[in-house]
Amino acid sequence: MRYDKILLEHGAGGLLMSELIAGMFLPRFDNVYLERLEDSAVFQLGGMRLCFSTDSYVVDPLFFPGGDIGSLAVHGTVNDIAVCGGTPLFLSAGFILEEGFDTDDLEKIVDSMARAAAGAGVKIVTGDTKVVARGAADRIFINVSGIGVIHYGGTISPRSIEPGDAVIVSGTIGDHGAAILSARQEFGLRSSILSDSAPLNLLVESILKVSPAIHCMRDVTRGGLGAVLCEIASQSQCCVVIEEKDIPVHDGVRGICEILGLDPLFLASEGKIVVFCPPGDAKRVVDAMRSHDLGRDTTIIGNVCEKGQGRLVMNTSIGGSREVDLPTGELVPRIC
Amino acid sequence: MKFIDEYRDPLLAGKLLERIARLALSAGRQMTIMEVCGTHTVTIGRFGIRNLLPENIRLISGPGCPVCVTSIHDVDSALFLAGIPGVIFATFGDMLRVPGSQGVTLQRVKARGADIRVIPSAVDCIELAGENRTKEVVLMGIGFETTSPTVASVVRDCKERGIKNFSVFSVHKVIPPALKVLVDDPALNIDGFLCPGHVSTIIGAEPYTFVAEAGSSAVITGFEPVDILEGIFMILGQIREHKKTVAIQYRRGVNPEGNLRAKELLNDVFKPGATSWRGLGMIPDSGLYFREAYRNFDARLRFDIPPLESVEVTGCRCGDVLRGIISPRECPLFKSVCTPLNPLGPCMVSTEGTCSAYYRYH
User: Fold this and answer.
1) Domain limits for position B121
2) Structural domain of residue A280, as residue ranges?
3) DSSP string, B132-190
4) List of chain B residues with pLDDT < 70
5) Residues B157, B75 share a domain
6) In chain B, what residues touch A323 (CB-CB under 8 Å)?
């Protein structure tokens, strides 16, 4: 390792994190499921295709406009399963609680998890609780793992992407990141932006119903749309071209980005997906997504050009063009 | 979004580009324009402006990124201060990854246990000092005339409130003396400068008079793409008319006389003195040091910073990049050894650094 100590940036979803995964975890855990580095591991078991995913949640503040750490934890793991084409079934919940944490707050969080699970049609079937001394953790950390079954016949993966594919996003980007930032007192901002944290499994089901040829889907998370598209471009070895003017961004989110000097392209979402599908299916997919509550603002934002070099290119709003790279540096810590 | 979309209007940008193309064609020679501020460089990259300009207009980036021009000796001193037990070192996020002589950064010192806080504004230091009365809060005072008035105001506030456990390690700099060095450099033949909009909000237009007197255009320019294009258009207009002046494109932000209150505040707390700029060397009257009345807030006096043997990274050409002598691509370390993940020089570290902007927006 190049670093003798872990830096906050190692967890920021950028280049340093990719390096940690590739240098530390991959070679040691070494197996064909993990090495695909997708949102869930996909495997065959007893004649069924299953997917399995895990995620930990350390968001600060615990309660934010549009959600809380509990609903976020359920939605995040449900979405990681959904975008692999899986129907999420069972979740686990692991709690790390700090001594002195308010039980009223815990109750609110657990109630919220129960509601989120019911809303997504999943059950939390196993769990674990640990309490650590004051100062050894910050109030509450939650890990949620989940298992789902895949009925879809195709292979949803960046490796399935073909030149010509349409790139579709299910709505405005950056809402979660902006909601968290405005909820943090240190910035002294006030806004009406709500986190978009939501379960995407039903939206995904309606997409898979109308197109039997979805090539790739990803939920947009910590690194924002930009990071997801960079990763997909690199894993698919295709050039992905997007149009800045077509990317939906809420005015309030743009405002916060302008004030803080952030790029909405790299601001977190927790209830949006990007879909890659053949151009002939694009209209059907967009219509199906728009008819769903969580996909009202679905837009085609670009397409896939030639195969060969995995890169993301953006045509800018004033007619220029530039390449987009994975962010380096810790944009905003503890966003999810 | 109001007040943003107007300045990113593709039609307006297109018209300006047409006019720029016409003026560039009629000029019939290679022209060099320096964008002085790092925020200009970022906008130029982020909106892909460089590729939209005629071939005979060369945009070069200037020294207007505070992190980039901080000397390695000052970085080493900051690392020393941050490592003193009992010190809470408050800094803006951009400084965290700047490597000192040994390649050590504030980020690494923090991971090893130093109490380093990233603050969005210098004003947060007042609360930090109040909440931690048994500790010493040291602010990394970095930035040009845009940032230094806030720091001056915090210092004055702390003096009035009698806050004693707060000091500033000032590496603040002012822009005009650095521009003077560039204007006087015979190796650079700059036709016009896009002067920094935000700095000029404070200092006004008068301090750039020497640029026009030396035969270059100085157009105080805003940070949106249409601002930059209009700034370039205005410089080309001055070239055609053979009349070099100080002009203000960023009229919605800049008064010719600047912000008198901020200037008074700066002058009350700080006095100018010589300081070393990375790439440009020692420049008289370009640094801000505490006046006698505020000496208690000077971290250089409060702490005993030992003489440090600072060494620049071998082969790093940040200095030449900062003077516009070379483009980042001409540095042998660029992208091969020096990347945003492993930055060797400060121009690759700061989000406003020229090398970082070239790396991210190519």
Assistant:
1) 68-172+261-266+287-302
2) 158-324
3) -TTSEEEEEE--STTTHHHHHHHHHHHHHHT--SEEEEE--B-HHHHHHHHHH-TT---
4) none
5) yes
6) 361-362
